[in-house]
Amino acid sequence: MGEALLNVKGIYASAGDKTILHDINLDVPAGETHVLMGPNGAGKSTLGKTIMGSPEYKVTQGTITFNGDDITKLSPDKRSRAGLFISFQAPVEVPGVPLASFLRSIAAQHKELNLRGKRYKNRIAEIMDQLDMDEKYLTRELNVGFSGGEKKKIEMMQLLLLQPKLAILDETDSGLDVDALNVVSHAIQEYKKVCNGALLIITHNTRLIEHLDVDRTHVMVRGHIMAEGDGSLIDNINKNGFEQFGLPDYAKKEDAEEAAAQAKAGAADDEQPAQKGMFAGQGGAQGQTFDADSALKNAEAALDAAGLKSKGGTK
Ligand SMILES: Nc1ncnc2c1ncn2[C@@H]1O[C@H](COP(=O)(O)OP(=O)(O)OP(=O)(O)O)[C@@H](O)[C@H]1O
Ligand SMILES: [Mg+2]
Fold first, then answer.
1. CB 138 within 8 A of CB 99
2. Residue 242 Cα to ligand 1 middle (Å)
3. Does the beta carbon of 20 sit less than 6 angstroms from any atom of ligand 1?
4. CB distance 248 to 226 below 8 Å
5. Is residue 189 domain-shared with residue 224, that is, in the same domain?
6. Which residues contact 265 (CB under 8 A, 6 or more apart)?
C-alpha cells in the first residue's frame, strides 16, 4: 500500500488530566471515503479536532502525518492551508463577523484557490445555489441565530469553497431535514468528484453515506479503534450495535479497578454500621456485609480477567 494522505500513528490525546484518545492508528489514502463510528462519548469528535490541531486537546504521544509532512505540532490554520478541513458537530457562533466577511477571509488565506474579485463572487453564488441557500445569509453574523440545519449548510459552503484534500465531517447529517440532507449529500459527492477529495465521515446514521462508496469503516470505543472493515461493517453495526467490539484493555482495567474500589468502599462501610446513621437500621447489616463481600469477590475476578493481579487489594 502506498503512503496514506492522512496517517495517524499511536496518538494519545488529553483534555486537562483526562486522556481521551488511547493509541489511535488510522490511515486515509487520497480520494477514499472512510467512516468513523462509535458510541456517544467514544472520542470521535475529539479525534477529528485533534487531527485539525484544536488547542482544546493535548497530544501526549504519537504522530499525525498529512501529505507526507508531520503536522502533529502545526497550528490549525497551517493544517487548513495544507488541505485539511473539518466540519464541526457544533459550529461556533461568531457575533460581529458577517458570513460574507468570514468566507472572504478564509478564501484570501488560501491563495492557491485564486479566488478574487468576480471569480470569488461567482463561486459563492454558485455554491449558495447548489446548497439551496438564501443570499440574505451572507449579511448575517456567522452562525448567529442560524438554525441547526442552516449551520450545517454554512459548514458545507466552506468545504465547497476551500476544496480540501481531506474533509472530516463530524455529524454533518444530524439536524438536516430530508431535503437538506439530499442537497448536502449531492454537494459532498461533487466535492469527491471534482477535487478527488478524501472524506472521514463521523456519523450515527447511514443516510448521508448511502450515496457514497465507503472504502473503509473504523469503530472507536472508549478512545481506541476496536475494529476496521469495509462498508458492510456499517450494516453489521446497525443490526448488532457496538457491544460486540468489546472494550480496549486499558478500559477493562480502569473499570475493574473502579469496581474493586467501590466494593472496597462498600465493605468498609459495612464494617462500621454505627457510622452510617439512619441507613444502619435499614435492611440489616448482616445482609449488606454479605453483598459487599460478594461484590469484592466479583471485582477481584474482574481484575483477574483484565489481566491484573489484585494482590489482595486494590491500588
Ligand atoms: N474539552 C474537554 N474537556 C473534558 N472532557 C472532554 C473534552 N472534550 C471531550 N471530552 C470528553 O471526552 C469524551 C469523548 O468526547 P467526544 O465528543 O469526542 O465523543 P464523541 O465520540 O464525538 O461522542 P458523540 O457521538 O456523542 O458526538 C466524552 O466523555 C467527553 O465528555
Ligand atoms: Mg461527537
1. yes
2. 17
3. yes
4. yes
5. yes
6. none
CA of 203 to the centre of ligand 1 (A): 14
**Tell me: the pLDDT tens digits for 212-233?**
899 999 999 999 999 999 999 9
Q: Is the CB of 90 under 6 A from ligand 1?
A: no
Q: Which of 27-31, 37-41, 50-54, 87-91 has the lowest mean pLDDT?
A: 87-91
The answer to whether the CB of 43 falls within 8 A of the CB of 223 is yes
Ligand 1 contacts CB of residue 15 (under 6 A): yes
Domain that holds residue 290: 249-305
- 56 CB near ligand 1 (under 6 Å): yes
pLDDT tens-place string over residues 86-127: 999 889 899 999 999 999 999 999 998 888 889 999 999 999
Q: Residue ranges of the alpha helices (H) in 112-216?
A: 117-130, 148-162, 178-195
User: 184 and 129, same structural domain?
Assistant: yes
CA 252/CA 248 separation, integer angstroms: 6
Q: Tell me how many degrees the CA angle 193-72-221 measures, rounded to the nearest 5.
A: 75
Q: How far apart are the CA of 56 and the centre of ligand 2, in A?
A: 14
Secondary structure (3-state) at 22: strand
Answer yes or no: is the C-beta of 58 below 6 A from any ligand 1 atom: no
Task: For residue 111, give the 3-state DSSP assignment.
Answer: helix
Surface-to-core class of residue 160, CB atoms within 10 Å of its CB (0-12 exposed, 13-18 middle, 19+ buried) = buried
Q: Is residue 213 part of a domain?
A: yes
SS3 content of the chain, % helix, strand, coil (to 5): 45, 20, 30
CA distance 53 to 96: 25
* Ligand 1 atom nearest to CA at 47: 18
Whether 13 lines ligand 1, by a CB cut-off of 6 Å, is no
Ligand 1 atom closest to residue 171's alpha carbon, by position in its atom list: 27
Final residue of a structural domain among 245, 267, 287: 245
In this prediction the pTM is: 0.85
